[in-house]
Amino acid sequence: MSKKITIAIDGFSSTGKSTLAKQLAKHLGYVYVDTGAMYRAVTFFAMKNGYITTDFFDKETLINSLPSIKLHFEFNPELGFAEMYLNDVNVEKEIRTLEVSNFVSLVAEVSEVRAKLVEQQQEMGKGKGIVMDGRDIGTVVFPKAELKVFMTASSETRAQRRFEELQQKGQTVSFDEVLKNVEQRDYIDTHREDSPLVKADDAIEIDNSYLTREEQFNAVLEMVEDVTKSL
User: Fold this and answer.
1) Measuring CA to CA, which residue among 24, 55, 35, 27 is closest to residue 142?
2) Where is 174: in which H helix or E strand?
3) Neighbouring residues of 66: CB distance < 8 A, sequence distance ≥ 6
4) Alpha-carbon gap, residue 115 to 120, rounded angstroms
5) For each successive 10 residues of the chain (231 residues), what is the average pLDDT?
6) Beta-sheet pairing, 6-11 with 147-152
7) 51-65: buried (b, 16+ CB within 10 Å) or exposed (e) per residue?
8) Residue 1 pLDDT
9) How far apart are CA 108 and CA 92, in angstroms?
């Protein structure tokens, strides 16, 4: 496939967007950008500086601190994917906790945060040959993407996946905690005023509740091939 395209993958939390995006990028030789990691890094910054707690969120101070937040990805050849760096410190492990998950949708609601990150994401994708996953990639970041995929699955299925993933990482959590987090994030993501999670009109929806990773990958790869042939 000589013609490179932009692939936008949106969907609910824990639908395997990042896993699919990484598979596609590796197979196609494309750049992969995990926008969720960018929002998680800003959330971790807010948590570390005491701007957000269970019953407190100082949005204004976070907004005023945005110029001091530097984000970039660095490819780790041993892991086979790029890791998230916050102000030149690797925070890949720290941003994947349930604690960060509990706050990330609230931070992502802040329009100034979204504006800063969307601008960076659009800059990353100027040369095409990119796979980007998130909540508003096909609707806001790359509305003219040649291929848009919208991923969904039942909340119970997604919670079980996330629960198993956190257990494998050695984190002590309960299934009920994870399910509550998934449902809360769904509500916030779909009800926020700025760039809510919605399926783009021209996106192809995939319910992967009963699909294996291989089945999902092959289905989307076929879509990529169809799109590139038509260009």
Assistant:
1) 35
2) none
3) 112, 113, 116
4) 9
5) 88 94 92 93 98 97 97 86 93 96 95 96 92 95 97 96 93 95 95 94 96 95 95 87
6) parallel
7) bbeeeebebeebeee
8) 52
9) 18
Which of helix, strand or coil describes residue 201?
A: coil
pLDDT of residue 2: 66
| CB count in 10 Å sphere of residue 136 | 24
Sequence-distant (6+) residues with CB within 8 A of 93 are: none
The two structure tokens encoding residue 65: 């601190």
What does DSSP say about strands 130-134 and 81-86: parallel, antiparallel, or unpaired?
A: unpaired
pTM of the predicted model as reported, rounded to 2 decimal places: 0.87
pLDDT at 185: 93
Which pLDDT score is estimated for 138?
A: 97
Beta strands in the chain (DSSP E): 6-11, 31-34, 52-53, 56-57, 71-76, 81-86, 89-90, 130-134, 147-152, 204-207
Which residues neighbour 159 within 8 Å (Cβ) at sequence distance 6 or greater?
14, 175, 178, 179, 181, 182
Non-local (6+) Cβ contacts of 22 within 8 A are: 32, 80, 81
* Amino acid symbol at 202: D
Helix (H) / strand (E) element for 221: namely helix 213-230
User: Residue 66: how many CA atoms within 13 Å on its side-chain side?
Assistant: 18
- Looking at residue 70, what is its pLDDT? 95
